[in-house]
């Protein structure tokens, strides 16, 4: 469900030969929007860092690796920032670009925007994650299995995402292959496969704890496939894909810190630390790309980014043992998926792009009848500019995450 | 070091009319019209028999391998066999997609003949890589329990190999500079080094003990550096010993067969279960490599209907380095790689820049006779031609593969004779 028109696969007249011959050095990417990123980072990370360093008394043996990981992630931020303009040149040279449909009719709509820059984020993430192993794990650590399985799953997902961006595989294949990418994860998941029956239902079910066994593993696999694809279909506005990822990532980090601070079980704390070790680099590298992808986008992220981000968060949720919480963070994505179901299933006609309609004269987007959160939001709240709509949707995402925290707090005694 | 001319990257612009007509042909021609030549299954059957029969005989009949281990290996062989057919089916499909994306090359060793005008799809190594990973991932379920010791090494191996496939494919698509190509594989080896929980000692050859003063020398971190360099070497060396139809995959399957035979021999002649596991581990990764590679060879054997791309060569090199390192037989692996080492040593002056290094260091093709003549470039291919006279491409490839097999056989002979003397 690509949101950008790909010239090389749709057009029936050949692009003029000049683009391939024009020297790549002439191409200059718009400068990164560092001011916006600074604001976003401050908004998202400050609560987390406060909780980690001051509010909770996290013992130093755990705090040190987390801070080392944060430091490596910061380095990853700057490396990604430097590499994106370089990669953009290479990607353009290979004719991997799109036109921004939401700017069609304005001069910006004719600019060739480099696609699939998610590959930079993916590779830098993997390198940070690989290097971090040396700082944290000893050779006989129990967590090494999970960590390597996580790396293998995420790496396979990045590979499949990039292959999809390059070769444009059919959507059935896109649905099937991530299932294979989750298998190393499922194999390495050595945790409980039980669910806690909510107290009010115990008398009906007759059990307090239900061991789902293999069905739990099936649930985990479906969760991964869902996360991987759901970010992909809640897309189409400049900065929306990365934006939703960093908001959810911030919520994940806050949740992890709260669990570490409020628990004495060392296994549980390790699980949440594990999730932090993967989410901090995701956050940092994503913010670096957001510097270029925020409105107006100078680069597009491609399926490479969306499947990578979805898989990483699914991995963090599964191996950190908070997958149910993760699902509540994903409420907007779940909503969007449910709204999209009629068109995805083919019951309602599904056009190539399900984007809102852009009016070049006013610069505003109007919601169409397509079943996406973007369109429904526009139909409920009226026309908006692209940037303002994106900000609205990100605030909605943040509210959904905040709602999750409230829910957990209120249900804490009642549910478990 | 791509040996195929990639039209979209030539520095000298083609005359303006050509690209348009090329693109008209590729755009207006419906995808279904493109048909890949049928796979050369007869050749593959012969090659497979030559390479695999000794390994299977040793595994099933000659050595008394314990049943549990043997059944794991046979399950892996069965999955690999399935992988062979899946790869065989997927390559024509992928070739269509790859061509649509303008990822193709022209066969330089056929320039001047009609075959030299055909657009050959590139980078089909991605199919081999993806199928390999899926087979390797699925095999975990048949073999390991959740608390197995080998799960760390297995996942680290998967992570390293997967990262290498990713980098190789990114290189095929974006054509990264060669310095980057050298640096990035070092990162891909890191999960491997982390997971290597084996000994970092080397055994000093008996004749030298008197001089060194030790029987066993613990190299510690230097051993890990050696392993990292070995992986980078293997990854790149197959890439530069290339340029003939079928040479890249051919050298891989010959070396893989040698690895399998070595593994089985070591399992058969040892009683230490840890030792058995190490070599079994190597078999679990090499059998899928062998099977999927043979499927690609069915299309890549002379005359090639697909090209393998850097994706394949770096994937193959990394997989063999991984099994050598985690199976604890990296020194033996190096001797299997003698032709690649020779080729690397011959290439050093040009790689370093002392001697001028052209874009392609291929032999010269004469369309009239159909023979290749060696140039002054420092590659094994050229040196072989200069020593033994002009040859056709197919015959030269076979010669070089026989040379590879002889080098591996020499290694077995060497190990046998040095067994008492060396260790």
Describe the structure.
- The structure is a homodimer.
- Chain A has 16 helices and eight strands.
- Chain A has 416 residues and is mainly alpha-helical.
- A three-stranded antiparallel β-sheet of chain A has the order 1-2-3. In chain A, strands 6-7-8 form a three-stranded antiparallel β-sheet.
- In chain A, strand 6 and strand 7 (364-366) form a beta hairpin.
- The first copy, chain A, is globular.
- The model of chain A is unreliable at 1-25 (pLDDT under 50).
Order of helices and strands of chain A: EHHHHEEHHHEHEHHHHHHEEHEH
**Average pLDDT score of chain A:** 86
Question: What is Rg of chain A?
Answer: 21 Å
How many DSSP H or I helices of chain A? 16
Quaternary organisation: homodimer
Low-confidence stretches of chain A: 1-25
Q: Enumerate the strands of the largest sheet of chain A in spatial order, edge to edge or round the barrel.
A: 1-2-3
Distance between the termini of chain A: 39 Å
Number of strands of chain A: 8
> Could you say which overall geometry of chain A the principal axes of the C-alpha atoms support?
globular
As a percent range, the share of helical residues of chain A equals 55-70%
Structural class of chain A: mainly alpha
Biggest sheet details of chain A: 3 strands, antiparallel
Largest interface: A-B, 52 and 54 residues
Main location (chain B): endoplasmic reticulum
Protein name (chain B): UDP-N-acetylglucosamine--dolichyl-phosphate N-acetylglucosaminephosphotransferase
Keywords (chain B): Endoplasmic reticulum, Glycosyltransferase, Magnesium, Membrane, Metal-binding, Transferase, Transmembrane, Transmembrane helix
Enzyme class (chain B): transferase
